Amino acid sequence: MALVPFLFYFSQCAVMEVKALNQNHCKFYSFMRATRGNWRNTLYVMCGGSFCPHGKNPPCEGYLMAADADGSLIIMPVEIVRQFTGELIEPSECRGTLVRKTFEAVFSRYIEWHTISDSSCPLLQLYQDADR
To answer: What is the pTM of this model?
Structure first.
């Protein structure tokens, strides 16, 4: 993937009217900046296979995690990365992997301060609330 046209296209997010699709583009642009243009520079957070403890059916494939310039987490669903890149996202190609329970234990204070509900998936909340 040529990074320059990619970054030019997504840099237009700053002037776009905010709509659901454009918000996904802008979130993806921020994610790609944090990963220096390569989703492989992330931690893969595995959700747990065929069962979602938060009731999502079918369960998600997992999330990719990076940090922005100030150290804040950027969470991106694997499904969205695949949609934007057209690539199969393999956990073994990422810098590392975490299981969901480990992520929730290590980042428990961050989750407490950056999510609203204890009953909803914290990873999904972190992704959805990224633009706050």
So the answer is: 0.78
